[in-house]
Design goal:
Elements: H1 2-20, E1 33-38, E2 54-62, H2 65-94, H3 104-119, H4 123-126, E3 134-142, E4 147-157, H5 160-187, H6 194-208, H7 216-233, E5 236-243, E6 246-253, E7 256-257, E8 265-268, E9 272-279, E10 282-288, E11 299-303, E12 312-316
Antiparallel strand pairs: 1-3, 2-4, 3-4, 5-6, 6-7, 6-10, 8-11, 9-10, 11-12
């Protein structure tokens, strides 16, 4: 009886010891042996109660040390982005800047997820690296097959001041987008060249990529892009001067001159030796009309390129 009791006590002690031994790694795989620990003495933070100003990643496994560290760092970044997103979206919803439709919880979670994605693109997030982290890892090796793997534990410092900096960076980026949209909207009325219009359309499309499809600002950007596109579609080639062997034209929109640095294409059934030049806000076309006859009603065709539009003017050649 006594021996049975001692045996039970012994087994209980073994179970307790196993439960109390602090392990960083998940259960050791069969046939693998731990061959390295760095540092050799397991840091106290690996098993201590997690502190507020740190993010902890435990038991992250990888085929290589680099892989395990990279996965751990990705989770650190995701954790930081999630914590900032919760605060940012919570503040924005409280301010009533967002209409909550349908299931409020689902909406908020989806919105936070998208906000987290935008936060992850901030330059401040890109500065997060394992150089700032406390790292402990264990290296396991199977001698028979040569297989190996690593298990990483990581503690990354991140305090409330850093969180506030990220929130401020996020809000600045959002305000920058709003300001840019306003600026491009204002420039519709004053833009004066085809190149400026094309650049603004390109910039607005790039700006749109910073937003999600269901962001209300996407609709506004599309509307502004349409305003610029409509200008290009509505350009008129205005004849300024027409005399023997020479003519000049310019692009206009609703009476306003729109310049372009791109030389127009010029063609004729009879005229040749074209000399096309830019002169202030107009384009001049000099040519030889020696093979043209007045009774044939000869013309010169001038074609500009403005985005996807081709403003065109057919001008009758003068002989006197």
């Amino acid at each position: 009886m006594r021996s049975k009791l001692l045996g039970m006590i012994k087994r209980l002690l073994i179970v307790l010891v196993v439960m109390l031994v602090p392990l960083c790694a998940v259960a050791q795989k069969k046939g693998f042996k731990r061959v390295e620990c760095v540092p050799k003495q397991k840091p106290a933070w690996v098993t201590e109660e997690e502190r507020k100003d740190y993010y902890y990643i435990k038991n992250q496994e990888g085929a290589t040390l680099t892989e395990a560290k990279n996965i751990a760092m990705t989770e650190v970044m995701n954790s930081i982005c999630r914590s900032v997103a919760v605060i940012v979206t919570g503040d924005m919803i409280d301010e009533g800047n967002i209409s909550i439709i349908g299931d409020e919880t689902v909406f908020i979670e989806n919105y936070r997820s998208k906000t987290q994605t935008k936060i992850a693109k901030l330059p401040a997030i890109q500065g997060i690296s394992d150089q700032k982290a406390d790292v402990y890892y264990e290296h396991y090796y199977k001698r028979k097959t040569g297989e190996e793997y690593y298990v990483v534990c990581m503690r990354y410092p991140f305090n409330e001041f850093e969180r506030r900096d990220l929130i401020e960076a996020y809000n600045k980026q959002e305000q920058f987008i709003n300001d840019e949209i306003d600026r491009y909207d204002d420039e519709v009325e004053v833009v004066s060249s085809v190149e400026a219009i094309n650049k603004n359309i390109t910039d607005l499309n790039l700006l749109k990529k910073e937003l999600f499809d269901d962001d209300s600002r996407v609709g506004r950007i599309n509307a502004i892009i349409k305003l610029y596109t409509d200008i290009l579609k509505s350009l008129t080639v205005e004849l300024m001067e027409n005399r023997p062997g020479f003519m000049s034209v310019r692009l206009t929109y609703k009476g306003k001159v729109i310049t372009t640095s791109r030389k127009p294409k010029v063609a004729s059934d009879c005229a040749n030796d074209f000399d096309v030049r830019y002169d202030k806000d107009k384009w001049t076309v000099a040519f030889d009309s020696g093979y043209c006859y007045e009774q044939d009603d000869p013309t010169v065709k001038i074609v500009f390129t403005a985005g996807n539009s081709k403003p065109t003017k057919q001008v009758r050649i003068k002989f006197r």
